[in-house]
Amino acid sequence: MLIDSHCHLDAAEFGDTSATLARQAAEAGVRWIVVPAVAKANFGAVARLAATLPQCVYALGIHPMYVQQADDHDLHVLREQVAAALPDPRFVGIGEIGLDFFIPELKEGPLRERQEYFYVEQLKIARTFGLPVILHVRRSQDVLLKHLRRVRVAGGIAHAFNGSQQQAQAFTELNFVLGFGGAMTFPRSLQIRRLAAVLPANAIVLETDAPDISPAWLHPGINAPAQLPRIAAVLAELRGQPLADIARQTSDNVARVLPRLGNLMMR
Fold first, then answer.
1. What is the per-residue pLDDT across 150-173, written as a single tens digit (0 to 9) for each?
2. How far apart are the first and last CA of the chain?
């Protein structure tokens, strides 16, 4: 069994093919797909996907690249939606939230301040409800960690991790696991591949980030959750482990940091 710990199955690039893509993923051995929201506008969409597709679960949050279109009322709506979603066993956490310092205009000035404000306020929501978070981590590891130490949450996933081994350890000490996906499949991604090979087995989860971060054999095409088994095979090769062990360990890791999904898995 494999778990795609980060997949935007509701993305516009997929049109009306989400159900087909989910079925293809299931046929390939992907048992669960975690679908995070990115803005108030798609809170309903991710919840509906999880309600209609048996292998999907969802998270609610405001992505850092969408905060410039958001306002404080969106945070109020998020808090209300989270409270309303708690009885739903397919609701697993707060996400996708975080910081993006890769895009120059987001790295400094008012937009950076706005990113940090929304990030911290969403951490507070996660803390209030005792929920894990799914983090967007792009050239922002140290600032993310700074706020995580101030606003302690239950843990979660640092999606598409591309930091140092020291930063990786800092996240794991805060009960986070690190997401590895398509970027790991490129031979020139030396740092990511080295981390994937040497990090403790309980620190790694698998993801596609579909439709984004396509693996080497698809680049620059559109990614899909059915690609996860081949991505997992790359991780198995890098670590010198059987694919079955990788599937079991990474699934266990997701269940640990997203305990509401873990409860579903035990049913």
1. 999 999 999 999 999 999 999 999
2. 15
Percent of the chain with pLDDT over 70: 100
Collapse the DSSP code of 100 into the 3-class scheme (helix H, G, I; strand E, B; otherwise coil) and give the result.
Answer: strand
pTM for this prediction: 0.97
- Give the pLDDT confidence score for residue 109 in this predicted structure: 84
Three-class SS of residue 121? helix
CA dist., res. 267 & res. 250, Å (int): 19
Q: How far apart are CA 214 and CA 94, in angstroms?
A: 24
**How would you label 2-35 residue by residue, b for 16+ Cβ within 10 Å and e otherwise?**
bbbbbbbbbbeebeeebeebbeebbeeebebbbb
Confidence of residue 42 (pLDDT cuts 50, 70, 90): very high
Domains within the chain, CATH numbers bracketed: 2-265 (3.20.20.140)
**Distance in angstroms (rounded) separating the CA atoms of residues 105 and 119:** 17
When computed from its CA atoms, the radius of gyration of the chain, rounded to whole angstroms, is 17
